[in-house]
Amino acid sequence: MSILGFRKAPAPTPKNGVLADFLDGFSIEVMPRTAEKVEDFAAILPQGTRVYIAHIDGTPVEDMVATAARLHADGMTPMPHFPARIIKDRAMLTDWIARYRGEADVRQALLLAGGVAQPAGAFENSMQMMESGAFDGFERLHVAGHPEGNRDIDMDGGDKNVSDALVWKQKFSERTDAKMAIATQFCFESAPVIEWANGIRAAGIDLPVHIGLAGPAKLQTLIKFAIACGVGPSLRVLQKRAMDVTKLLLPYEPTEIATDLARHKAANPDFNIASVHIFPLGGIKTSADWLKVHAKDEE
What we know:
- InterPro entries: FAD-linked_oxidoreductase-like.
- GO terms for molecular function: oxidoreductase activity.
- Keywords: Oxidoreductase.
- This is Methylenetetrahydrofolate reductase (NADPH).
- The chain is α/β, with parallel strands linked by helices.
- It has a single domain (17-294), classed as Alpha-Beta Barrel (TIM Barrel), CATH 3.20.20.220.
- The chain has helices at 17-23, 32-35, 61-73, 90-104, 126-131, 160-173, 190-202, 219-228, 235-242, 245-248, 255-267, 284-294; strands at residues 27-30, 50-53, 77-83, 108-112, 140-145, 179-187, 209-214, 273-279.
- An eight-stranded parallel beta barrel has the order 1-2-3-4-5-6-7-8, surrounded by four helices.
């Protein structure tokens, strides 16, 4: 206690340098309805942050474009999703692209099949959109990765189809000027992620990986999303936590898996995980607060 009787402010907790380095250049995502709750993105995220805009089936493209325009105006880098199975034809695809480019200066896109069972028209997967030539001139194209498989694509629980798709995308990256990367589904355990990342590298896929991590959220919320999104083996991490009464009511944070991956990256500089993508399942502000504690300070 000071001589005047006032308590000294506690010293700030030093950042974990390895983790801060690993989180540098992170991305995050929103939907139009969640973006509406954020008054000013520049107040919670560093300038230039890549913000994915998830396009859920039924969301009007006008809402998507308006969200992209707002993110751009707030100094962010918008990267909208283009889900192949909800796009009827090339004319619709080029119309969407023209709107994004004209109203929000969008130059980056995440291409994925989309979570609907039946295609609305000409496109069934992201590769068909890539082959269409509609994205010529984009600076960056990201594609989906599935460290724990995807039963919508490989119904037998294997990985043949997702592996074949990654090989195709690798070859596409070698004949295009766009910078490409693999953005993955979120995971909760580092060992399966490391095994998967090393496996695709050994198979000749050198696209950088942007690993998906779930931001802080209530345990029940995470389990619900994990089951809905088909998260596989690492779901056991949440199930084990749910059995621990001392942790049941505490919010989950991705600090442990992020630190494990950061240490592995520091020990293995050639490890192909290049960045982190945060799924703000507990709210974007909550995730932004966690990132402020653990990521590098804005310069």
